[in-house]
Amino acid sequence: MSGNRFDMELENFKQLISSQTRQNWLFGAGISFDSKIPLMYPLTDRVEQLVLGEEDESKTKILQAIKADLNDDSHVEHYLSHLGDLMAIAERSKINAANIGAESHSMESLQDLYRSMIEKIGWIVRYGYVPENKSRGTSEEIGTPENPIVEIEPHYNFIQALLQSQANLERRAVTTFFTTNYDTLLEDALALHKRMVRDGFSGGAVGYWNAEREFSKQNLDYDAYDVIKLHGSIDWHKDFDLGLVRARYGTKYLSNPSNIMIYPQATKYVETQKDPFASLFMRLRKVLGDKSQNTLICCGYSFGDSHINNEIEAALRSEGNRTTLIAFIKEDSSENSVVNATLDAWLNCPRIGSRVYVAGENGLYHSSTTPIFEQEGSKYNWWRFDGLTDFLKTGELA
Question: Model pTM greater than 0.85?
Fold first, then answer.
């Protein structure tokens, strides 16, 4: 489909992004790729490499057993989810252990591996990692405390473009950011643009969890933005005496990297029933469930988290809901789907499809899995974080 319909749909699409006074963003790992933070499978490979490099026989044996027990396409989130299940079994067991196959592993050994993997994820996300890519002719890059390689420019440029696009609305707009990422690039970019961030913590460089107060503030200052980190953060620290704190990294106190408060498991339902995650998901539910007209705009999120998907779908289907979903995402090009299984189902649903837009590489989708495009063979890069930034900045398609 092309011509006039594309122009009309594109204009409506632009209006939804630029004119809504209640705008919510949901980000996933894809937005940090150009910042030199790896996607899930390269992250998995790097974590495995580091664990095996410790030459700890117990950790190696458990990790290899878990890999053998799971599907071939499993990644580090699945490993940690499996470990979490095993630790729950060991905790209930008389012998304080759990079996993987024919072998029994103690609670202590399972916890050691879990903490080690969490520590390594935090290290990789904080300092950056780029795997070797022979087809592109790029070499491996490993960030360290002495030589971090993480770049903030993509996030900085996005916030700049967003503020520019909201120039006439910012003083009366309410913008909330949700993210599944553990890095601090989003809140850092907002701060560099002199915008205040509410993340559920009170305090300064070291903050204490105070979500009830922070998220209940009737602070409508145009320069304040809520950043809701649904899966935790590399600067969140669970301290035995102090509880949850946002910690300054590299100090002698609050410095155990295995106590980073992130939950990268594939199955997160249990954790989302406890604080801090209960408060964060309650915030997501409240925003999506609001009866006012608003948008939820996704980028870098592959719709692989069923718990988040369930919250979005429940809101879209609720009586009187006026949320419009906009997903910037590349089609997965599989035999069984056009965009992906979740978005295909929503686009084709008579009840909610009219409030679902997908900006893909092959065109714009609305109420259908048939793309709308300027001309046959058109390709668009707005599904990328930098492409989205350019689209916000210029309103033009590349």
Answer: yes
| pLDDT digit string, tens, across residues 220-272 | 556 789 999 998 999 998 887 888 899 877 777 766 777 888 775 544 445 55
Tell me which residue of 54, 48, 56, 58 sits closest to 104, measured CA to CA: 58
Nearest Cα residue to 284 out of 19, 25, 17: 25
Axis crossing angle, helix 385-394 with helix 153-165, rounded to the nearest 10: 30
Three-class secondary structure assignment of 254-310: CCCHHHEEECCCCCCCCHHHCCCHHHHHHHHHHHHHCCCCEEEEEECCCCCCHHHHH
Rounded to an integer, what is the distance from CA 328 to the centroid of its chain? Answer: 14
Burial 216-255 (b: 16+ CB within 10 A, else e): eeeeeeeeebbbbbbbbbbbbbbeeeeebbbbebeeeebe
Handedness of CA 219, 222, 224, 228 (dihedral sign): positive
